Each structure stands twice: as structure tokens, then as C-alpha cells.
Amino acid sequence: MRKMLLLIIWLSSAVRCQPSKIHVSAQEGGLAEISCPYDSGYETYPKYFYKGIYGKRQSIIETAAGKKGSAQRGKYYIYDDTKRRMLHVTIHNVNLNDAETYWCWIDAYGFDPKTEIELKVYKAPAPPLVTSHPPATTVSDSASTTLWSTTPEDMRTVLPPLTGKRLYLAVAAAVAVAVLLLCLMVLYFKMRKHRHDTGFCEM
Questions:
Q1: Which H or E element spans position 74?
Q2: Domains by residue range for the chain, with CATH
Q3: For residue 82, which phi and psi values (nearest 5 degrees)?
Q4: Which residues are within 8 A (CB) of 13 and not within 5 positions of it... i.e. 6 or more apart?
Q5: Is the pTM higher than 0.70?
């Protein structure tokens, strides 16, 4: 009976010593937010945040014993919420090297409650490639198509083809000019003839 009782106590201790494990993921350049719950009765104990596997863990940041508050060291921020019994840790500006095993650790007497954290960091997507090109203007007619860049150094004027009303106005203007020139020529010859006749009579 005594052996059975000792076995039960040993098994319960083994189960209790088995740390819980949570998984956290973050994007490169962002935040990794970690929350580790703990049982009642550990509110006044100092708490640590470790990095590395169990046998080679290193302390990153810790809280003061018996005090509810926060602390910051570099890009690591820790806050012990004793009312909700939750230890919060934030890692700012995470990079790919931060993908590691971490520990939330309570420094108690005898048994130290702990939570294992596996942090995965995903590579940030590459920014889109933006290219700029000078604006292009296309001018086309039935005969040919011309393409050039409308820049201040090379400005060109494209005259539209004469069709419809524009063609009619152009023809009318040409006829009017021709008639005017004809009238001027007739008037010129009449005046010349008049002078010739006048001069012949005086002789």
C-alpha cells in the first residue's frame, strides 16, 4: 500500500514537472507577442524570460519579485499581469534569427513552473518593383503610324487631314484668292491701256 502511495506521488510530480508548450509565429520586421499563464500562488515570485534550449538557456529579461509592472531591455518587453496571472512578453522588430525556443520561467522554491515557447519567424514579402517610363503618344492615319515620346526637347505638330467642312473651306478660300488675283490683273491691264490711249492722243 505504501509503495502504491509513493508511486502515485511520484507520477503526480512527474506530470507537474512536464512543462506546457505553446507555438507563436511572427513576420519578419513585426511583433512577436507571447502570453504565458500561471497558477494561483505564484503572483509574488520573480519571473524570467529565457532563450535557447533547456540546457543552454540564457536569461533575456525578468520581472522584479512581488511587483506588478513591466520592464524593457532592448527590443524585449515583459509585463506581469498578477490579476489575470499572465506573463506577457513582446519582441519588437523580430528577424529570422529570433526563430528559437524560449521559456517563461517562475523562480519558485523547489519546483519552478515553466512554459516552453516555439517561435517561428516568416520572411517578409519583397516590396513590388516599381518602374517608370516616359509617356508615349500615338498618332495614326490611313497612310502611316508614327510613335514618339512627347518630351519638351522634341515637340512636334501633327496637322489633321482636310476632310468634310475643312476641305470645302480650303477650296472656297483658294477660289476667292484666284478671283481676286484675276480682277486685279484685269484692272491693271485696263489702266495700262487707258494710259497708252491717252498718251497717243496727245501726240
A1: none
A2: 19-122 (2.60.40.10)
A3: -70, -20
A4: none
A5: no
